[in-house]
Amino acid sequence: MNAYIARICTSFIDVPGKIAVAVYFAGCSLRCKDCQNKELWDPHSGILMTLDTVDQQINAHQLADSVVFLGGEPTDQMPFLKTLCQKIRDKERVLYTGREFEELPPSLIEHLDMIICGPYRSDLHIDSWPASKNQRVFVKKGSLWKSQTT
Ligand code: SF4
Fold first, then answer.
1. How many CB atoms are located within 10 Å of the residue 23 CB?
2. Which pLDDT value is given to residue 149?
3. Which residues line the pocket of ligand 1, CB cutoff 6 A?
């Protein structure tokens, strides 16, 4: 199983208060007007990587307590994303998506711990996290999802 991945790196900003491994998926079909990552719209902006390679690179970041999927649009490569989430057991799994929570399949969200939903919009920008007011944050508590949006 393969996916187009732009880069895998350490992140100190995408999960507040946590060290994360950031997996940037290449390719996005949503094409939001104010996208900050337009260079990742084309899947071929990344390279095709196997599931095992991505998993190994995540595990190489031993200090990270979270893994965050962003891009690009990770859910455009849904079978790979689901399988990768299932494999990761020792880190919190966090997804940034331009899609809304209600659009995501249960078979994906059961393998996630936090989801930040909705596209970045410059007209709703705030100097906070997440960066625009329309974005909603959901956190799993036990088997339930709680919205943290104020
Ligand atoms: S979903 Fe994200 S990556 Fe895709 S166009 Fe919208 S803001 Fe950009």
1. 25
2. 66
3. 28, 30-32, 35, 37, 71-73, 98, 119-120
pLDDT digits (tens, 9 = 90+) for 51-103: 999 999 999 998 999 999 999 999 999 999 999 999 998 999 999 999 999 99
Domains held by the chain: number: 1
- Among 24, 30, 31, 99, name the best residue to mutate to test ligand 1's pocket (greatest count of ligand atoms within 8 A of Cβ): 30
CATH number reported for the structural domain that contains residue 6 in this entry: 3.20.20.70
Length of the chain: 150
Burial class (CB in 10 A: 0-12, 13-18, 19+), 17: exposed
Q: pTM, whole model, 2 decimals? A: 0.94
| Domain carrying residue 90 | 2-110
Question: H-type helices in the chain, by residue range?
Answer: 51-59, 78-87, 106-109
